[in-house]
Design a protein that fits this description.
- The protein is mostly helical and 96 residues long.
- It has one domain.
- It contains 4 helices and 2 strands, in the order ββαααα.
- The protein has a two-stranded antiparallel sheet.
- It binds FE2/S2 (inorganic) cluster.
- FE2/S2 (inorganic) cluster (FES) binds next to loops.
Length: 96
């Protein structure tokens, strides 16, 4: 996943935007990343990855996380499976 990859696919929030949010707003806990465009408040698939971004940005950029090991296609496919197996429901966005 690169910096422009969308991490929260429900709300189309990029890794770069989430990383900047952590650097500038200094959330105390990973769940506060929901204040960045609602990240993690849809199907819930991205929550473990939001934690990884929080860890990377608060403990140093040198940490390799699962996000660096997965492709966008694998990530999107994992989310589809997450939703199709009933583990989460994507939000209804306006215009859909
Ligand atoms: S991908 Fe982030 S809540 Fe669904």
């Amino acid at each position: 996943m690169n910096p422009d990859s969308h991490i929260c696919l429900c709300f189309r929030i990029s890794r770069r935007k989430l990383a900047k949010f952590v650097r500038f707003h200094k959330p105390k806990v990973p769940s506060q990343l929901s204040e960045c465009g609602g990240a993690g408040t849809g199907c819930g698939w991205c929550i473990p990855y939001l934690r990884m971004i929080f860890e990377q940005e608060t403990k140093g950029g040198g940490i390799v996380s699962g996000l660096d090991m997965i492709t966008e296609e694998e990530y999107a496919s994992g989310r589809s499976e997450h939703i199709n197996t009933g583990k989460g429901k994507p939000p209804k966005l306006s215009g859909e």
